[in-house]
Structure formats: C-alpha cells, structure tokens
Design goal:
Elements: E1 12-17, E2 21-25, E3 30-32, H1 36-53, H2 59-93, E4 96-100, H3 104-107, H4 114-120, H5 122-136, E5 139-143, E6 169-171, E7 178-180, H6 181-196
Helix pairs in contact: 1-2, 2-5
C-alpha cells in the first residue's frame, strides 16, 4: 500500500454531488449528469412490455428477457465507465478530495427523486474514489451530512437560514458576494473538511 501523499488547501478539492450536475467541484467546474437510465427508460419500458406479453416458458419470452437484461447491462456499463473516468481524473489532479456524507437511503424514500438518485448512483462513485485513493496514496475527506455547506457564504461566513431548494443563485446580504448554490457548497465542503484536519481556519 503506497504512503499517503501530504495535502493542503491548494491540492484539495471539494466535490458536491447532485442530480442536474453529477458533480460540482470547488474550482468552479461542473460535470453534467449523463442520466443513462433516464435516457434508456423508453426503450426499457418497450422491452418490458414486450416480454410481459410473451407466454411464460416460451423461447420468445426467453429472447425478450435477454434483450431486456442486455439493455440493463449496457446502462450499468455506461455508468461505470463514466464514474471510473471521473474518479481517476479527480485523483490524478489532486492529493485530496473532500465529500459530504449523504444519507442516500433516506433520500431514496422521496419517490420524486428515487429514480434520479438511483440513476446517478453516488454511492458507487464514492466507493470508487475511496478504493482508488488507497491504491494511489491519495486522501478522501468526509464531512457530516448535516453540515450547512449550502447555506453559508464561503467568503464571509454569513449563514442564510431562509435558503430553499429552489434557490440556485443568491447574494450574501453581509458581503454582497454572488454565489452559485452548488459551487458555494463545494467550496464549503472543502473548507469544512480541511478545518477538521486543522489545515485552515474558517
């Protein structure tokens, strides 16, 4: 196992995962969510209906079932390939990655979001980051799921209590900084994680 590389503020990035953008990085970069499952749903539904109409035990049903499973496998492979490339890129460019701990199981109970969350598959992405970091001597930092990364101005520390999910951009009433909600969250995730390591003060 390689020795862990040292890291500091300049070699660490914060990553905020989401649904619209799969990942927003503290350097301002946004990685669009490819939504492989959503883009294949129409075809999956057609194949599912086709299979359900075939007689149980027939060769035609077996063929239809195979076609359905192949499409599911394709979606899974596309997602894995995307996540492997992104996790490798992040780790090759940085010594440490800071992430927020997500309650994915709890979020999946929201039926409006469940399919989108399953499609994004954040848990498998985080797992990739963690085992690849072990391989190459990098570090994955975690902050708690209740840290107010979205609601704090990363410039002056003002806490905006009335922030709703609908707000995508906001102006800090204290220092007048204009924030993109997700980039601000990614910067704060990095700050909180480094502060836990006593590397910076907020």
């Amino acid at each position: 196992m390689p020795v862990k590389s040292s890291f500091d503020e300049s070699t660490t990035v914060g990553v905020d995962v989401g649904i619209k953008d799969f990942a927003v990085i503290s350097n301002g970069e946004k990685v669009e969510n490819p939504k492989y499952l959503k883009n294949s749903m129409q075809r999956l539904n057609v194949l599912h209906r086709r299979m359900s109409k075939k007689q149980k035990g027939s060769k035609n049903r077996t063929k239809a079932k195979l076609a359905l499973s192949k499409l599911h496998e394709k979606v899974s492979n596309q997602r894995n390939d995307f996540q492997h490339k992104l996790s490798s890129k992040l780790l090759s460019e940085n010594q440490a990655i800071a992430l927020e701990t997500l309650n994915v199981e709890g979020m999946m109970k929201n039926h409006n979001l469940a399919q989108h969350i399953a499609d994004a598959s954040w848990s498998s992405f985080v797992s990739m980051l963690e085992y690849k970091a072990e391989w190459c001597g990098k570090t994955v930092l975690r902050i708690g799921q209740f840290e107010p990364s979205t609601k704090i101005c990363n410039v002056c520390g003002h806490y905006k209590n009335d922030m709703t999910l609908a707000v995508r951009e906001w102006e800090c009433p204290e220092c007048n900084s204009i924030h993109d909600r997700d980039i601000n969250a990614a910067i704060n995730i990095k700050k909180f994680a480094l502060n836990k390591q006593n590397l910076i003060r907020i």
